[in-house]
Amino acid sequence: MKNFTTTRHCLSRRHCQACRNDPAWREVMARSFVMPEDCPHITGLGDVVAKALKLPVVDKVVKAVTGIDPHKPCGGCKKRREKLNRMMPLGGRSENG
């Protein structure tokens, strides 16, 4: 199966919203493509913060200071990411493409 991130669907960024937020859409696409765990595109400040929190050095500091595991999915992290992406999109693009 082809990796979804190399297709024109993913590269156009027109499906970012559905890919990130619609499990049914991801399930249908997964029948034909290998789907990424996270969106590979940085569309706003929220994506930058999310990627930075997953760096090994930052990961250890966050765990030591807050006791929170940055790799454990939580609704708060997703909400923060979406809000920051809406408030500060990068490259003049919004999540909706």
Count the beta strands.
Answer: 2
Overall, the morphology is: globular
* Proportion of residues in β-strands: under 5%
Low-confidence stretches: 93-97
Quaternary status: single chain
H/E element sequence: EHHHEHHH
Largest sheet: spatial strand order: 1-2
The radius of gyration over CA amounts to 14 Å
Give the averaged pLDDT, no decimals: 83
Distance between the amino and carboxyl termini: 26 Å
Which structural class fits the helix and strand makeup? mainly alpha
Bin the helical content. Answer: 40-55%
Counting DSSP H or I runs of 4 or more residues, the number of helices is 6
Number of domains: 2
Q: Give a quick account of the main beta sheet: strands, pairing sense, barrel closure.
A: 2 strands, parallel
Can you offer a commentary on this structure?
With 97 residues, the protein is mostly helical. The chain is built from six helices and two strands. A two-stranded parallel ribbon has the order 1-2. The longest helix is centred in the last third of the chain and has 13 residues. The radius of gyration is 14 Å and the shape is globular. The two termini are 26 Å apart.
How would you summarize what this structure contains?
This protein has helices spanning 8-11, 16-21, 23-30, 45-53, 56-66, 75-87; strands at 2-3, 33-34. The protein has 97 residues and is mainly alpha-helical. 10% of the residues are buried.
